[in-house]
Design a protein that fits this description.
single chain, 393 residues, alpha+beta, Beta-lactamase, 8-stranded antiparallel β-sheet, 13 helices, 16 strands
Amino acid sequence: MRGMRLALAAVAAALVPVAALAQASPPPAGASILMWSPEQQQAGYKAMETLAAHEVVKRGPTVFPLPAGAPLDPKLKIAGTPHDIESFMAAYRVSGLLVIKDGKVLLERYGLERTPADRWTSFSVAKSVTSTLVGAAIQDGFIRSLDDPVTTYIPELKGGGYEGVSVRQLITMTSGVKWNEDYTSLDSDVAKVGLSVIEPGVNPVVSYMRRLPRDVPPGSKFHYSTGETDLVGILVSNAVGKPLSQYLSEKIWAPFGMEQDAIWIEDVAGHERGGCCMSMTLRDYGRIGMFILGGGKAGGKQMVPEGWTADATRAHIAVSPAHPEYGGYGYFWWIMPGGDGYEALGIFGQSITTFPKDGLIIVVNSAWPAADTAALNAARGKLTAAIRAAAVR
């Protein structure tokens, strides 16, 4: 259940066929990125800027250094089968694996014909970046408080299910608004949101979301809603008066020292998806982890309020009260059971896993054969555990 919810319908609508890239048969008519073949995944995930409308997140003049540390060679077993890093990456279609401890790179490997210069799509890892921009907007005075009503920043939501919902409730997915995240139904909310301009002059995501009814009282229940993460992206850009890509460049990408421009996929109205689909290099995924672990400072300046990153990466609500093993949820971050680690997660095997007390960051980019399954998540969990055991000895 952790990290597996991501709507791709609006992104898929913007994508051109990738069959030519991979010399594979085209998907069935109307198929989305969720249905790409392994060959199409391998080609498309590192070439999203050629497939969909996007904005560029510009890097700055300097690069945050990631020096080499003592190398790791972890071993693990999955269902009785022994694996080293090479065999695990082959078995689970990993395109990039990066381990940083105390600011030093202990392990950096690439697969699926990816190079260090190749970007890779983030899927829902972008959500954690979007919530960080909420913190930046508070630091800059554009958002007064997390307890402000959402309608202060998206007034078109007044009078609907989001009336009385706070920014805090939106970024912890506790709005109480009814939402269907069923990827198998073309009639689900996640399949329909943002696909067309419903009202001229109103973002199509906002148009769709403001028609949704209230289900439970705000703040009472965690319920994953991809539409709400896109709302947060719109909220931030409305508050700061700038595109998300520009604000991200100004607050993190350039001052922190990312090594390469990133790209951010847009919705059909030309607004960056707050919940999806940035593309960046493996090391820049690691630098996101470093920025959060370091308390949100870039270029010697505090970019988010003091204590923001600690608050964002603690559990504000249980994912499922009946299943404590699912952990908790922060500000678009998944919190591990026991609270000793937190993760930014995206489908098909994208993750930034951080153990703050160990100074340890583990980045995985993949092209899993399924968006998310218990077995695939368990395998990545065993890899993470093996790496942590080897790194913290």
